[in-house]
Amino acid sequence: MRATELRISHEAVAANARALRARVPDGVKMMCVVKADAYGHGAARLAPRLEVEGLADGFAVAIAEEAAELRAAGVRGMVLILGGACEESLREAVRAGASQAVYDVDSLGVLADEARRLGVRAKAHLKADTGMSRIGVRTMDELDRLLARWKDCPEVEMEGMFTHFSAADTDPAFTAAQSEVFSRMLDRVRAAGFAPIAHAAASSAMLDPKFQYDMVRAGIGLYGCGMPAMDGELRCAQTLVTRPIRIETIQAGDTVGYGRTFCASRETAVMTLPIGYGDGYPRILGGRADVLVHGRRAPVIGRVCMDMLMADVTGIPGVSLDDEVVLLGRQGGEVITPDELAGHAETISYEIMLGFLPRVSRRFVD
Questions:
Q1: How far apart are CA 17 and CA 13, in angstroms?
Q2: Burial of 112 (0-12, 13-18, 19+ CB in 10 A)
């Protein structure tokens, strides 16, 4: 087996959950977002731990299959499916005992029908579209029609009501406007006799009391990213490592990699690593990112290949084929974060953490 592996620390995630929980008032619940395999951190292993340790008042996933996976792993509390769904997925949500996002009468009817068939009461969270223009009830007229149908639908409990902020990290004025729309819709829902748990804020807005409502959704912050206000308090939970397969000295004028995009200006020690975009390490990082060797930064040179990449280790003494090289994570006093790689790759940290492909082995270190 090659030495390339992604090490995942659930203790780091739990520590982040504790830090986030400490910043939220006692009367506000915290839902942990574990969709997309907990952003690449292993949802079926992670969610039961967070539940047992009392760090999650519920979990959010994207699809019914993810909800069923959590139930199979032993999760007993609230599980919310955030996305819209086809009829079979709606029925699967009821079978899994999960709450489904609902924003139209047809979906509500399917949930009610499956609940009657199974002899259970389904649960749902009414989804309001306050500016994302993705899914959700957009107007008061739509909301009134849905509420009128829901009053005649005792088979489905309105467990919650929620919205998504579309620019909480960049546009406070628009976020405040979204929150105002949500508040008006929530008032209408409560006036109609419902008592849902209200939630709007994900990681980027969850520390602001104006947006906390009854519950917040800890997403990217749970995994140590995307919350500048908590720099130094949160820990990245992924460490991507490998070992070199060759170290060779080239001369001034020699080039490296496809397209000859790197030309040595001096005698250069080139370390070849057995990882590339076929493993999910973005091709665009060639000539932009660093790796860590002996706790020091070594720039990635040339183009990232499908299965290999090269780094300039000139000036790092004692390098050898036995060295562990860190591409993401901490080594010594240096750290490469998902946010850093995302900046180099012109993307977001979510995509970095989710991007590592199955041929990169996972190891849960704690």
A1: 6
A2: buried
Residue 52 backbone phi and psi in degrees, to 5: -60, -35
Those residues whose C-beta lies under 8 Å from the C-beta of residue 284, and which sit 6 or more positions away, are 304, 344, 345, 346
Known active-site residue 210: no
The answer to whether 92 touches 113, Cβ cutoff 8 Å, is no
Given the residues 29, 35, 123, 127, select the one marked as catalytic.
35
Residue 138, Cβ density class (10 Å: 0-12 exposed, 13-18 middle, ≥19 buried) = middle
| 30 contacts 51 by C-beta, under 8 angstroms | no
Q: Rg of the chain's alpha carbons, rounded to an integer? A: 24
The whole-angstrom separation of Cα 99 and Cα 93 is: 7
Longest dimension (CA), the chain: 79
C-alpha distances in Å from residue 3, one per residue of 102, 252, 332, 350, 366? 46, 31, 19, 24, 19
Predicted model pTM: 0.95
pLDDT confidence bin for 1, thresholds 50/70/90: confident
Q: Which helix (H) or strand (E) holds 92?
A: helix 87-95
- Strands 246-250, 215-218: pairing is unpaired
Q: What does the alpha-carbon distance between residue 352 and residue 339 come to, in Å, rounded to a whole number?
A: 8
Enter the tokens of residue 282. Answer: 């973005």
End-to-end C-alpha distance for the chain, whole angstroms: 21
- Residue 228: CB atoms within 10 A of its CB come to 8
> With pLDDT > 70 as the criterion, what percentage of the chain qualifies?
100
Q: Which of 103, 151, 223, 258 does the annotation list as catalytic?
A: 258
- Cβ atoms < 10 Å from Cβ of 315: 10
Give the whole-angstrom CA distance, residue 308 versus residue 147. Answer: 56
pLDDT digits 0-9 by tens, 56-78 = 999 999 999 999 999 999 999 99
Residue 351, token pair as written in the block = 């995509």
Phi, psi of 365, rounded to the nearest 5 degrees? -85, -10
- Is 123 among the catalytic positions? no
Tokens 């519920």 belong to: 58
How far, CA to CA in Å, does 276 sit from each of 180, 280, 285, 309, 336? 46, 7, 10, 6, 17
Q: Per residue in 31-42, pLDDT tens?
A: 999 999 999 999
